[in-house]
């Protein structure tokens, strides 16, 4: 799971009212007025909190005539709650994907032209990670980049900057929030170059 989604999940559940709503819905579907009555809050307040939970996919709704019932997506809740532990599991996988210096140099030599441009993005995961780690060296740790700046860093190496940018995020080299990008700590990377 991407880091920005994990952060968003925890932000949404970082509110006591939303946790109470999730707890109520764990026992079965309820409509907004019933939730408001059980929590002693106004329906408009419940509408606000339910919208946040719905936007994250933790709850969904179904209409029964004139009444909208809210349901908890327990599977999604469990997946999101375990996401941090899964990131730790990726660290274990990272150790299994270790690449020695000779292999790294061979991969770089095969996928980069003499002028430094990337010939193609490797399809094999191990090789792709080596290439991504090699390219990410251009990014300054601690600096926040706008999307346009990231594109400008990638463009001299490869024309498909959107794919490279997406791969950096999906493989936890970088974190994205509101079109701003920042390098993750190397401990989160799947491969350290």
TrEMBL record:
InterPro entries: ArsR-like_HTH, DUF2087, HTH_ArsR_DNA-bd_dom, HTH_MetalResp_TranReg, WH-like_DNA-bd_sf, WH_DNA-bd_sf
Pfam families recorded: DUF2087 (PF09860), HTH_5 (PF01022)
UniProt xrefs under CDD domains: HTH_ARSR (cd00090)
Span of domain HTH arsR-type: 1-92
Superkingdom of origin organism: Bacteria
Keyword Endoplasmic reticulum: no
Key words of the record: DNA-binding, Transcription, Transcription regulation
Molecular-function GO terms, alphabetical: DNA binding; DNA-binding transcription factor activity
UniProt xrefs under PROSITE patterns: HTH_ARSR_2
PANTHER family: TRANSCRIPTIONAL REGULATOR, ARSR FAMILY (PTHR33154), TRANSCRIPTIONAL REPRESSOR SDPR (PTHR33154:SF33)
Name used for this protein in its record: ArsR family transcriptional regulator
Organism: Pontibacillus yanchengensis Y32
